[in-house]
Sequence to fold (196 residues):
Amino acid sequence: MAMSDSAKHKKAITEPLRADVLIDTLAALTKSIMRLDNKQQHIVNDWLVTWSKYLDFEGTFDPRRLVYYKRGDIVLAHFGYNVGNELGGVHYAIVVECDNNLTSGIVTVVPLSSLEDGKTENDLHKSEICLGRIIGDVDCYAMPLQMRPISKLRIIKPKHKAHGKMTVSGKMLDKIDEQIQRNFTKQKENKNENET
Fold:
């Protein structure tokens, strides 16, 4: 009887990885990175260094040692190096999860970015929300389409009470909630529109 693909995969990942297999994988990765432009090469390398540290910390990481992240809190997090149009790099983000558990290793956030010079709220995609100057002296916008759960390992700050906390208003959270509903749920049509 032939072994299923699932069974083959499970068998393969229960055995120790051979060093020569890892060396081949890293050699292929190196070639891929070297084909990128200089800036991307440095970004990928920096992410690999950071990711390696996360892997080292993972075994002893205890989210209970961090501050409690409430809905509306602003965190600075490293979203990593991702593929395609997935957000990557270091960004501020707003915690949108209701009642995150202190013992949970993850928290759900909506990433933020800043408007480029010369750009206005009118230049944003219809899925994005301008929030104004909530961090420093630049206009920020929220990107609900990039909403995701992240490991609390990725949070750069605040980690401790000494870091202080920034939060957004309930009004801003309402705007984000409304946009999340538009982006991810089927909207009921207006009753009057159905009657015409």
About this structure: The longest helix spans residues 38-58. Residues 63-184 form a domain with the SH3 type barrels. fold (CATH 2.30.30.110).
